[in-house]
């Protein structure tokens, strides 16, 4: 086995190189460096503030946004026979964007983009994908994709797109739509994309290169993929959309004297008396916005139980913060924003929530079991801008203790993404509020063992002093 691993490592080829890094990002467990190569099979990770742009060997683009884990499993370009090129991406969690390179465009039948629950193939494409361990969603910027959930002949180890009766296509002409696959599903669902699209879950940086999609029927239109080999700064905008050069100066032309204009006689201005001014109350005085409260709940059917709310309708009154599995976290619109204290810490008591345990016997057969939440702990340290939490989750005679930690943003958002493969570790997104004298909520997923995972939501109130 050791000799096999050494041989595989020796055969791993360069898949591309890093052209931009921001925030916390790593390649193969080491800090990502601008200009460094990316080899096949290396784990690519970004933190809560991390972005990683990779230019593939055939001038394609692979972008990881914050809290993302992925790898380029294979990138074998056959220049003599382009149809034999083999490319495979794996997105484990988070949001990533893939723009096909020159070789992929000539070997679309050999391109595969895997998530934990689905396979994506291309028709010569630029697209973004969100995934956690149970749900994947894809939106197309230009071109078209084909998507299928794992099951039957479509398996993670395969190559190329899964074409079959259960697969579904999505093109850039279907503006505002996305495809979604949940664990256990084979046929993707077509959804309205706005609040759930990858760009809403994890927005791109302002300097992220966009697709040139003239005639693509709804794709973004902006500068195409730039040559960023020498780019060493965060200002990608100058490379993506450079300003036109200034015209050369005209030399050896003597100035032409211009006579001063004639000075006309000053006009006689008759000023009429000013009309009486009726004071107008400021517009702001007529608009009273409520304090911003936390809105949370389940937006999909689980174990036959109807959802708590309609997410697109909830988006009309509230701001979507995050979705995680079957749960969504929003913040009501208003003026009372959370203000981060400079120091001190507070504790919270668990006051409510909901969770389900999912048991995956096969890629297409899942059991969903309601679970209860107990023994909750949530502590926020404002001086360190961090938090720690733990909860117990119980179903029948079995109990699990889940724990997590992470960062607190200036706007009160909690982020504790630790990787979907770690056992009993909470991958969560949360929010602090002054609601009810101090409250918090977070939505989470956690891997319990090889076959089981948990997904849920918790609501907390500040511990009285």
From TrEMBL:
Domain of life: Bacteria
Domain FecR protein: 44-145
Coiled coil: none
UniProt biased composition (Polar residues): 189-200
InterPro entries: FecR
Region of interest called Disordered, as start-end residue ranges on this chain: 189-227
Record's protein name: FecR domain-containing protein
Native source species: Massilia aerilata
Lineage, top ranks: Bacteria, Pseudomonadati, Pseudomonadota, Betaproteobacteria, Burkholderiales
């Amino acid at each position: 086995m050791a000799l096999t691993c050494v041989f595989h490592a020796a055969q791993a080829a360069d898949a591309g190189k890093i052209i931009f890094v921001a925030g916390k990002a790593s390649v193969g467990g080491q800090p990502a460096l601008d200009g460094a190569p990316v080899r096949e099979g290396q784990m690519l990770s970004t933190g809560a503030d991390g972005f990683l742009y990779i230019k593939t060997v055939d001038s394609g683009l692979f972008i990881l946004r914050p809290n993302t884990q992925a790898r380029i499993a294979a990138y074998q370009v056959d220049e003599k026979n382009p149809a034999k090129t083999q490319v495979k991406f794996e997105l484990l969690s988070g949001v990533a964007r893939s723009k096909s390179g020159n070789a992929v465009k000539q070997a679309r039948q050999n391109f595969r983009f895997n998530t934990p629950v689905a396979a994506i193939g291309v028709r010569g494409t630029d697209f973004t994908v969100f995934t956690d361990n149970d749900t994947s969603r894809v939106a197309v910027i230009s071109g078209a994709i084909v998507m299928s959930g794992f099951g039957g002949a479509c398996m993670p180890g395969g190559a190329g797109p899964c074409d079959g009766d259960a697969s579904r296509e999505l093109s850039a002409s279907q503006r505002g739509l996305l495809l979604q696959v949940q664990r256990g599903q084979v046929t993707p669902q077509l959804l309205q994309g706005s609040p759930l699209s990858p760009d809403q879950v994890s927005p791109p940086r302002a300097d992220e290169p966009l697709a040139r999609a003239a005639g693509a029927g709804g794709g973004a239109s902006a500068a195409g993929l730039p040559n960023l080999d020498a780019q060493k700064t965060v200002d990608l905008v100058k490379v993506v959309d450079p300003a036109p050069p200034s015209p050369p100066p005209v030399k050896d032309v003597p100035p032409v004297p211009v006579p001063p204009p004639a000075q006309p006689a000053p006009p006689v201005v008759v000023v009429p008396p000013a009309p009486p001014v009726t004071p107008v109350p400021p517009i702001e005085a007529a608009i009273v916005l409520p304090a911003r409260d936390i809105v949370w709940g389940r937006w999909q059917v689980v174990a036959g139980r109807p959802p708590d709310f309609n997410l697109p309708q909830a988006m009309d009154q509230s701001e979507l913060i995050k979705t995680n599995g079957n749960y969504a976290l929003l913040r009501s619109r208003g003026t009372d924003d959370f203000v981060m204290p400079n120091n001190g810490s507070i504790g919270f008591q668990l006051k409510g929530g909901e969770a389900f345990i999912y048991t995956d016997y096969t890629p297409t057969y899942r059991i969903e079991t309601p679970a209860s939440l107990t023994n909750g702990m949530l502590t926020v340290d404002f001086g360190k801008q961090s938090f720690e939490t733990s909860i117990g989750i119980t179903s029948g005679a079995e109990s699990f203790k889940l724990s997590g930690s992470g960062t607190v943003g200036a706007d009160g958002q909690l982020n504790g993404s630790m990787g979907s493969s770690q056992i009993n570790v909470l991958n969560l997104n949360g929010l602090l509020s002054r609601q009810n004298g101090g409250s918090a909520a977070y939505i989470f997923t956690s891997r319990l063992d090889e076959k089981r995972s948990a997904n849920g939501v918790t609501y907390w109130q500040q511990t009285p002093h």
